[in-house]
Amino acid sequence: MVFMTNRAKRAFAAVAMIALIGTTSACAGTDAGADDGRPTVLAAFYPLAFVAEQVGGPNVRVTNLTTPGVEPHDLELTPRQVGAIYDADLVLYLKGFQPALDEAIEQAGGRSLEISMVVPLAEASGEPDGHEDGATGTPDEHGHGADRDPHFWLDPSRLAIAADAVAGQLSAVAPDQSGAFAQRADQLKNRLTALDDEFRAGLTGCQRTEFVTAHDAFGYLARRFGLVQVPIAGIEPDQEPSAARLQEIQQLVRDHHTTTIFFETLLSADLAETIARDTGATTAVLDPVEGIKDTAASDYFSVMRANLAALRKALSCP
Ligand SMILES: [Zn+2]
Fold first, then answer.
1. How many whole angstroms from 238 Cα to the centroid of ligand 1?
2. What strands lie across the sheet with 210-215, from one edge to the other?
3. In the structure, what pLDDT confidence band is assigned to residue 6 with cuts at 50, 70 and 90?
4. Domains of the chain
5. Cα of 233 to ligand 1 centre, how many Å?
6. pLDDT digit string (tens) for 206-249?
7. Which residues are in the CB-under-5-Å shell of ion ligand 1?
8. How much distance in Å is there from the Cα of 232 to the middle of ligand 1?
């Protein structure tokens, strides 16, 4: 993947260096709107952009590389976005989740936060608990993303860990605002703790614990709150189930008297509808918060609270 000559890369790198020491970057066309001197943060997908916006506040310019309402797993970068990566003061991403981005960030060589360096990730196969003490921050050098579950933000306590790390990186970019970043990170963590408490209280004593999801995105949430996720597709939404797996899911739905098959608005609902029709269940939305269509109308907290309500209904919680 070659988007620019080495000479152009060096020029971009020089611009990025200048941006890092606090001078206005001169690189045009990286974003809608002129560069206004605020530090620029590029986030790989919505939950990281949300954290950057919450912690950075009005004095930081945050851009989400994944277009709102687009499924982020298979992000492909435009040359313009690659230029923006070279130009950004800080890039937030998750290695292995969006491989095209990993490569571009590595080549750009600017300041970046690879979120799994601070937030422990579970094995993709679904280990009982992903908090592997001692394993944090020492991921394998090659291809380690492929066998880990990226969907950490669906456990509010893990997203809270990201808040402090983002505040630390922003403080390195704009040291004069470090107090404000730390304060906003604390506020975000308090809200996430309250959300975590709501989930725990709301999902206690339910008649059922199994819930069927469109893709394997809710493993962290399930483990955090003592539930059992039954995913139709894999960690990657395009990992479609075999006929045998579909039969297995249908049997499980019947055995556990599951009333609801969840689907996602950014993915096809065909399989969920088929399973629901064949088992007499209904369908409902459970949103993995990977991409929010209208960020003015909803955000991480409102979508998560809608998820909690949907789960409480599906699991007949008291
Ligand atoms: Zn996903």
1. 10
2. 228-233, 210-215, 260-263, 282-285
3. very low
4. 6-191 (3.40.50.1980), 203-314 (3.40.50.1980)
5. 10
6. 999 999 999 999 999 999 999 999 999 999 998 889 999 999 99
7. 217
8. 12
